[in-house]
Amino acid sequence: MSGDCEYHTNDFEWDQLRQEIESDPSLRYHLLPLHTITNPSSSQSQSQSLFPSQDSEAWNKFHTRHSTGKFFKERRYILKEFPELLSCNEYSKVLEVGCGNGSTVLPILRGKQSITVYSCDCSIEALKRAEEMIYAADLVSVKDRFHPFLCDFSFIGFPKWLACDPCSEGFLQKQDIFLSDVKDTREAGINDFVSLKERKCCLGGVDFVTLIFTLSAVPIHRMPKAIEACFSVLKPGGLLLFRDYGLYDMTMLRFEPNKKLGSREYMRSDGTRSYFFCLDTVRDLFTRAGFNEIELEYCCVKSVNRRKGKSMRRVWVHGKFQKPA
Fold first, then answer.
1. Nearest CA among 132, 138, 92 for reference residue 112
2. What range defines the domain where residue 133 resides?
3. Is the residue at 304 inside a domain?
4. What is the pLDDT of residues 251-276, one digit of tens each?
5. What is the CATH classification number for the domain harbouring 95?
6. For the chain, how big is the Rg over CA atoms in Å?
7. How would you classify the pairing of strands 93-97 and 206-212?
8. What is the pTM for the complete model shown?
9. How many domains does the chain have?
10. Neighbouring residues of 231: CB distance < 8 A, sequence distance ≥ 6
11. 55: Cβ–Cβ under 8 A, 6 or more apart, which residues?
């Protein structure tokens, strides 16, 4: 990975951080099995994981609360971390899974003017924020290159039109639905909510799938199905580009014992969840789904909060996985 930007440097060794954390008694609860920790919220969290609508509602509230967009910065490092998005063939198709407010989609659309991005999220509020951000950017032919749709890929997979199924006729029979018109997700089937522009034909698969800080929000028991869904919509030889929270990241160490749901899995006070990956877990999840590993490593970045004068050690997992040709 390139080292000319603070996003891409390895400022410290992950093994050194691991030794420090695992020898600190005050952080020992992060290493313990859940049953050894008094956690009154665990039963609630387990029941919540059975109802993805509750997860979606938590993220709806999150994006409503952060509707100004200031919480998320545009992820301009994406094209440096994943240069394949710039060097790809003309008119390549990207599926951005868990697009949030569009902070990942925007630099991709800006970086290559012939690329088309299909963006999904389980939160209708997130999709509205993304649509607002993308259209406000005034990009070239953005309405023809940006297609948002509602989908909880970890629970029901992706719409059939993303792959090769002859499903276009069913979509053409639906009334026109636009994100800005939807007040309640019940107005549209969660797996059928697509942009009108994409009801005319099936895509036959996509060239790239991006999972950028998305899989960590999925309950651990639904992750294998989620990755299998990604595998199913990729064209042979297509790439899945992965970036997410790594084990012993600063945000993990900030969670209190009563926020722990399981090994490396936590729930925030707003009901959203986060998992922290080690390399072996990521490797196992993706290779079991049929992917070939191309790249997989920790990205360890030290950033400084100038206002508080504190140094923060961030750990992310960077990976690239390919569907066999």
1. 92
2. 14-21+51-299+314-322
3. no
4. 999 999 999 999 999 998 888 899 99
5. 3.40.50.150
6. 20
7. parallel
8. 0.82
9. 1
10. 240, 289, 290, 291, 323
11. 48, 49, 122, 152, 217, 219, 271, 272, 273
